[in-house]
Structure formats: structure tokens, C-alpha cells
Amino acid sequence: MKVSLVTGRTIDQGCSKESGKLSPEYMDYAATCELDPEDMKKLKVREGRNVKVTTKFGSVIVKVKKSRREPHPGVVFIPYGPWSNVIVDPKTHGTGMPSLKGIDAHIEPTKEEVLDLKSLLLKYYGGKSAEEG
Amino acid sequence: MPLISKVVCPVCGCCCDDIEVIVENNRIVDVRNACAMGASKFLNYSKHRLKKPLIRRGGELVETSLDEAIKRSAKILAEASYPILYGWSSTSCEAIRVGLELAEEVGGVIDNTSTTCHGPSILAIQDVGLPGCTLGQIRHRADLIIYWGSNPWSAHPRHIERYTALSEGRFQRSIWRRFLLRVYATSIRKKLQRALALAFRRRAPETEEARRGIPYTLTQEERKLIVVDVRRTRSAEIADYFIKVEPNRDYEVLQALRALIRDETLDVDEVAGVPVELLEEVADVMVGCKLGIIFFGVGLTMSDGKLRNIDAAISLTRDLNMYTKFLIMPMRGHFNVTGANVVFTWQTGYPYAVDFSHGYPYYNPGETSVIDILCRGESDAALVVASDPVATFPGEAVRNLVRNPLIVIDPHPSATSLMADVVIPSTFVGIEAEGTTYRMDHVPLPLKKVVEPPDGLLPDEEILKRILREVRRIKRGAG
Q: Does A4 sit within 8 Å of B390, measured CB to CB?
């Protein structure tokens, strides 16, 4: 399904980042995707299941969260953080500012697992090569 | 138990200065007046902590001495031909000043986090100016508050309560009674709908007015709150008007409002998904207020149009000043991002994205901004201070960032520290170290030290001074 991806702050993500970015709570709040209930019906996914969000710049697996402030059909929201930022638009159009909101995306249900922070870094950035001391 | 009062909160750009912290045996046991994010920082800051300097050997981060970490960092920076020095918004102005000196010494590019939040706002302000004020003026006098592309309920939790609609000002009352009434009315309406649905076995249609949340008490002489956003946020729920704009089309709505304020008629039914009647009503409210303010967030700077959106919002404010008094202010994110812009400007003449590679400060966002440099793969070393770009930069920029030798100075582990070559733990400014911060309205405030830091940890400022000293020693030795 075609959607528009918006990223941004949520209060839960804001609180959990203060208790540690490597904490499981941070992952619980940041590796999620808020969907409109109608869109969830169309996609045939329930809350807590995983979806794959794909843009021109990559794809990422996140957990579905039912939006409590509907209706916003066609708009999905992922809190900003390592999960959202592997699929956002790096183009700055000469302003220095990448495009982090309103990105064309494709969303589909998936059985793949959501990656934790360390596995995510390894998958997308290949970890760090050996550096001489 | 000792209570420390008037503590400035080191989380968001509100820099609330009424926090009370209760300390027992050098441990924060309770915090009062803070929002959820502030309380979370004060109570949890010590749980996930970097305690020892780390250095990468054979692909693994291993513990090392502070001296060795500083020497290694200085060597990386001194040998690099185009290093980037990034972060700065979550540290003190004093540390930023040393960072600028270091950038000049190593001939690198220094950039702060405004490059990925309000950078476009700064560009627009440099083009058209900014009719601004301090937040106290808004608390006491503003009778129309507009949040555009900003969700203060989540990102600046006490902004509405301390400075705008829910604050009790000298000349303006809080709207909390109206807010409660609306919550009550909404719950009754929902109950009625459920009863009707049960009785007739079908869902009662929701009226367009209820959906739009058109206020029923707006005739009162009270302050009004308008929220403009692409989705119905928590902040939108307490607003008198919520204008839902289609993503990336804020510019059209801003220009439509400018036209309506000049008494022009629009020959369309809706603009960017917003009915023109609603825009006409809002334009009337804007012209009719005594003192209005637009607080704009990164919803405008990160969407299509970027600086042009801000340009249009400031122009709208300027137009409104032909009829009434109107102001505008960016909602700054980190507690000292404003300070970073201020210190950068007084030291170099430019607020962010400053390139010292020519030997003098050179500024050209789009060219000297850190995302563009990374996407072009031009840097050959990176120093990150109090920031987490691996988590917050687009993937393409991160891929090139982690290819560089990477030095991180931060109190806590993050995605960036996991990918670093040298990690130097520091103290939390505002909790374990003193410093100066600038609130979003450019008011400088002193950050307090409320507890002693763990042994061996130094403030960012001291670590940077030591790296700078070592860089100078290396350069003198070479020259």
C-alpha cells in the first residue's frame, strides 16, 4: 500500500531516550509505526504485528501501533531514531536539511523480525572495520 | 533531605527554570515540576552510563586511559585534512566556545544540530528577518497562539502550560476550563453515539463540525489556540481549531492565508485538503486578535519547501502586523541549540555549518552543512560531541560517517558511540556540571550542578581543552 511517511518526536520515545538509547524500552517506542485503523484493515495487520516500510532509500521492519488520533488514512508515523532514519530522504536541495517528513513509502505486512539496535547497525552500516590502535 | 530549587532543566528548548531536585547521598531521589522527559532525565541519567574511555582495537572497543583516548583523538584530528566537528546542542556554551577554537585549529567544518532541525529557519530569517519576543510576553499578553508543524505536547511538554494557552498570564487567562469542558462534551457525545449505535445497530454518522473540532465558546474574550499539522497530534486535541494539512503542502496554506488576510477571494473550495471556509474563519481570528504568535516546528523545515515555508510564515506574520500585533518564534529542540547558534555567531559570524578549511570561517549551507559533506563523502575524520548522528542522520550520511575515524564525547552510550573509534565519557551538564544555556527565545540561563559526577569523568569543556592542547602540541612538533 502506498503511504506518506512522517517522522517526529513522541513523548514516550523522548522519555525512553533519557533512560538509555540501548534500553529495550527505547526500542519498544522507537521501532514502531503508527497506522490509521482503516489502513490496518486494508493491510490486514493487527497491532503488535510487524510491517515492512520501504522508500526509495531503503526498507526497515517496524512494529504496528494503532493510531489513537485517527483519521489520517495514507499517513504513517515512525518516531525519529535509528529505525526511521535508514529509510528517510537524504537530499537537502542545497539547504543542508534532509527531507524527514512526507516521504513517499510503501508498506506491507511481514513476518520478519524487528532488529535491535546493534543488529540494525550491523545490517545497515556493516559494523566498524578493524582500526589500528 | 536537601532540596535544590530553581534548577534549569537540560532537556528541551523550553529550559524550564523552576525544577526542584531532591538529593540524598549524592543521588537524585525525586524531582518536582519537571515534565515526563525532564523527570526521566533527572531520575535515569545515571543508569546507562559510559564510565571509562574506550578505544577501538582489532574491531573491538576496549577500555583505555583518559590520556591515551585524548592523545588518539588529537592525532586523528590533527592528521585529518577535512574533519567534521558535529553536535554541540546538548552541551554548555563554554564547551561550544572551545569546540570552535578546536575547529579553527584543525581546519575542519563545525556544525551543530540545527543543520537537521531549524537550519532552514535560520536561512529564512537571514532573508526576511524575524519579529520575535521573549516567552514571558506571550504568557502575559498573547490572545492567539498558533502551533504550526509542531507538537509541543510531545516535544516541549511544558510549553503550553508555562508560556501559552494553559498558562495564567497577567492579562490573559488560561484556557483550561474551556479545555475541560470540551473533553467533557466530547466524552458525552461519544457515549451518546455508542448508545445510538446500540439502539439502532448502526454507527451514527459523525458530524463534520465534531470531526473538525469547531469550538462552541469562541465568542468569549479568551485566548485561542490553533494547531496546524499533517496529523492529529496530542496538541491538536486541546486546540480550538485544528487545521489538517496534506503532507508537504504547508506552503500553499500559508500563502492562501496571506491572500485571505489581504481580502482577496480564493476561487477554489479547498487548499491542501483544508476547506477555504475554515481558512477564512482562521484568517478572521488572526486579524481580530490583539497579540498573536506563530510557533513553528520542524514540520515546516523538514517538509518540501523547507526554508521557503518559513519565509512564507514570516511573511504572513509581517502582513498581519498591518492590522494587529503578530510575532513568530521557532520551537527549538535541544536545550542549548539556540546557544550553539549564538556562540557560533559571536565567534565566527555564522550560526552553523562553518568551514575553517580555508583558514577563515566560510559559510554556505548546502555545501558546508554536515549532511551534504557526508553524502558527498568528503570528510576524513569526525568528532561528535553530545549528539547521536548515527541515530538521527539519513542512512546515506551515516554510511559515510562511520567510514571516518570517529571520536565521540558523550555521557551515555548511543548508536554513535557503538560505531566510534574513540569514546570519551563526559559529565552531564546541568546535572553534574555547570554551564550556560540559551532558551528558545534567546534568554541565557545558568545550568546548575546538583550532584557530584562519578570519579574520573570530566565536563565536555575540559575534555575539549585537553584535546586542543594536544592538537597544538602535535602541530608545533610537526611544524
A: no
Cβ atoms of A124 and A117 within 8 Å: the answer is no
pLDDT, one tens digit per residue, over B236-280 is: 988 889 999 999 999 999 999 999 999 999 999 999 999 999 999
Contacts of B100 (CB under 8 A, 6+ apart): B110, B343, B344, B347, B348, B354
The whole-angstrom distance between residue A66's C-alpha and the CA centroid of its chain comes to 14
Task: Quote ipTM for the complex.
Answer: 0.90
Length of chain A: 133
- Full 3-state SS string of B52-118: CCEEEECCEEEECCHHHHHHHHHHHHHHCCCEEEEECCCCCHHHHHHHHHHHHHHCCEEEEHHHHCC
Question: Residue for cell digits 524550564?
Answer: B16
| Structure confidence at residue B479 as a pLDDT band (50, 70, 90) | low
- Per the listing, cell 528577518 goes with B129
Residues B292 and B360 in one domain: no
Residue B263: other Cβ atoms inside 10 A: 8
Residue B136's CB: how many other CB atoms inside 10 A? 14
Rounded to whole angstroms, how far apart are CA atoms B386 and B392?
A: 13
Comparing CB atoms, the residue among B44, B154, B306 nearest residue A9 is B154
DSSP-assigned beta bridge partners for residue B349: none
Domains recognised in chain A with CATH numbers:
2-125 (2.40.40.20)
The total of structural domains in chain B comes to 2
Condensed to tens digits (0 to 9), the pLDDT of residues B190-199 reads 888 888 888 8
Q: Which domain range does residue B227 map to?
A: 119-330
Question: Based on the domain organization, do B124 and B223 belong to the same domain?
Answer: yes
Is residue B208 pLDDT above 70, yes or no?
no
Do you know the residue count of chain B? 479
B392: nearest CB among A85, A117, A130: A85
Q: Where are the beta strands (DSSP E) in chain A?
A: 2-8, 32-35, 50-55, 58-66, 75-79, 101-110
Both B281 and B200 in a single domain? yes
Q: Which three cell numbers stand for residue B365?
A: 549551507
Listed by number, the residues of chain A in 73-112 with a beta carbon closer than 8 Å to a beta carbon of chain B are 75, 77, 80-82, 85-90, 92-102
Strands B270-271 and B274-275: antiparallel
Do residues B274 and B409 both lie within one domain?
no
Q: By the 8 A CB rule, do B56 and B423 touch? A: no
Q: Which residues pair with B344 in a beta bridge?
A: none
